[in-house]
Amino acid sequence: EKAGYDHFMLKEIYEQPSAIKDTYRGRMLADQGIIRMAGVDDNLEKFLNAKRIIVVACGTSWHAGLVSEYIFEDLARIPVEVEYASEFRYRNPVIDKDDVVIAISQSGETADTMAAIKLAKENGAFVFGVCNVVGSSISRETHAGAYTHAGPEIGVASTKAFTTQITVLSLMALKLGKAKGSISNSDYHMYLNEMEQIPAKIEKALKSNTHIVEVADVYKNAKNCLYLGRGYNFPVALEGALKLKEISYIHAEGYPAAEMKHGPIALIDEHMPVVVIATKKGHYEKVVSNIQEIKSRKGKIIAIVTEGDTSVKNMADHVIEVPETFEALTPLLTTIPLQLFSYHIAVMLGKNVDQPRNLAKSVTVE
Ligand code: M6R
């Protein structure tokens, strides 16, 4: 059932190219410039008239929501707020009938997300679900939705659910951007064509696996680890840190790279590994200067870079390459090496990768 892989998590990491194809198959017709999503098409006016989108989710799904904030605002020019479902439900939040609430959940059973949906519905908002498990409670409770079609995710650490959630949310943003005219026709077509290249580019990113094993071996005994990224890669930094802590039990924090100087920089010394996502598009120069700040305090840099990068290579202790893509689609690629890095460290430390201590696959109690 693990199809020859040692763990479900590894199998699911490697399934991402095909999972993403399954997510867009039948929905995105790149050559015709069409994105069909019944749940969006049937409610197009609601999306187009939305004053804002409120995303509610937990954990990794919340990170996918954070990526969607960048993409919805960037491409569809709709203001987005991303909320931890557990905070939203108890905060007496302002919810308007013109708000569109998007609930993201792999399992479709998360108690806090479910409660947030009920609250949003009571306040008259239109609620759209992005779930993986077909027929799950959240998929039934929402007014409409889109499944991620990632196939069963068994490993407690979410991997393919995350990248397929981002895929669904990207398709939605592109569709709405096109309908609103906030992206040009030519950009829209370029995005669709690029989305079709993503599975092959993930395959390529997966080829760094052997190199990642070597890097993991160097840092497996670290006590702490920082993850930094900016823009679209900020949520990826959070997700990378979550993956490391939940399966290897190493303390890790994700930060927007520029926030480092407001506190976390005090932690940096020769014992602190810092994973920096420094891909070519998206504040590259600024991230490079963040790397210099870390280096001058003797921190160890593991940089995720765009194929062929040379400047970061000269500064970083290790570089892991990913193929080039559009800035908005970068998280689909930069996430891959971070998943593998955590996986290998956890395996080297002898941890129970698929069922980490204290965690359940779906959190059905608050
Ligand atoms: O099933 P959901 O997407 O609603 O689950 C939300 C979180 O519990 C989940 O993403 C959790 O953070 C994962 N273990 C992360 O790998």
UniProtKB/TrEMBL annotation:
Ranges for domain SIS: 43-182, 215-356
Keywords: Aminotransferase, Cytoplasm, Glutamine amidotransferase, Repeat, Transferase
Transmembrane regions listed in the UniProt entry: none
GO cellular component, one term: cytosol
Catalytic residues in the record: 361
Record bears the keyword Ubl conjugation: no
Enzyme class: transferase
Principal location class: cytoplasm
Keyword Repeat tagged: yes
Subcellular location: Cytoplasm
GO biological process, one term: protein N-linked glycosylation
GO MF term list: carbohydrate derivative binding; glutamine-fructose-6-phosphate transaminase (isomerizing) activity
Assigned EC number: 2.6.1.16
Reactions performed catalytically: D-fructose 6-phosphate + L-glutamine = D-glucosamine 6-phosphate + L-glutamate
Oligomer and partners: Homodimer.
Role description: Catalyzes the first step in hexosamine metabolism, converting fructose-6P into glucosamine-6P using glutamine as a nitrogen source.
Protein name per Swiss-Prot or TrEMBL: Glutamine--fructose-6-phosphate aminotransferase [isomerizing]
Organism: Psychroflexus sediminis
Gene (UniProt): glmS
Full-sequence portion shown in this chain: 250 to 615 of 615
